[in-house]
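Troubleshooting log. The previous structure file for this entry was overwritten by mistake, so regenerating from the original sequence record. Sequence copied from the archived sheet and checked twice against the printout by T.R.
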Amino acid sequence: MELIIVDNDIKARQFLDVHVQLNKDVPGWIRPLDKDINGVFDPAHNKAFRHGTCIRWILQDNNGKLIGRIAAFVNKKYRNKGDTCKVGGMGFFDCINDQQTANLLLDTAKQWLQERGMGAMDGPINFGERNNWWGLLTEGFHEPLYGMNFNPPYYKQLLETYGFRLYFNQICYGMKVRDQLQPKFFNRHAALAKDPNFRSEHIRKNDLKRYAHDFCVVYNKAWAKHAGGKDMNEAQAYTIFKQMKPLLDEKLSWFIYYKDEPVGCWLNLPDLNQYLKHFHGKFGLLQKLSFLWMKMTGSCKKFVGILFGIVPEWQGKGADAYLIIEGAKVIQDNSGYDDYEMQWVGDFNPKMINVAEGLGAHPTRMLTTYRYMFDPNAPFERHPILE
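Regenerated output below.
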């Protein structure tokens, strides 16, 4: 076997090809956009390079056939509550069903991380935000959501045999759009609806700066401190909203306010993979025209929950039910979608799990973030539960 560092465009193309060759015959696989994967490793597109570095390898057998790939990352901003050492990451792991081959790839990533002072390796994770390419698919081997890892079932055995241990599970929940919500949601909604200070509105594309501000307020109170995160500023939020704009369906994303102050948001988007599965990794002019046509004709029947949050002072007071019912009154009657699936919820987040289960949603798939301690005698603990 020959291990090759990816350091030019030809090898970068081979890095993409490994994933295609090893997954193309797996039922449910959807090829990611080439530009999305390339962007992770491009300093001009990925802000994680400001705080870290990464490397990629491809693996060939003696006949020159591509049989594996892996990337390793060091990011000073990557940390989780309870960490006792510096933790690096590995991701974009693909491998034939052979433990020796997997060991070579994983040993290579491990050595590179050790040389940079890391004491553990999480994976498979992304060099950047956690909303994309995070976790190994371990249950629910059907069409992935946009930006979600997909792999054959045997990858689980390859990682666990190597010595990776479960750090946390990432659970996705789904339901039919027109499923009847439980009476408790309507009761809790009715109680808050009596207060004229409460109101709701869905996003409007012509006012994204205001919604970016409102999103920052909710995000910084409800999420920013989770997993060692930091506050988001309005410029960052506005950039995210502008990126979402071409896909945005206004009536799918909602905010609620108390005395005109944002206290909750529920962001949903059409599942982009319902379009991309026809494009075979490309997104040139022809694909863009096809995307616009499919969007105009309503061909996408599935939408995805991206974020749901209530500011702490309104948690446990029915604001979640108020937000859900306000959105559901429109989405269930006029959206044209059939299926709803939420982006993953960590098993360390019981509040969000309760919200999902309370809706009547059921688990649709599970991904797993693993951790490998370089010192076998070092203490290992799962991700702490969020209070």
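The chain has eleven helices and 14 strands. Archived copy saved in two places this time.
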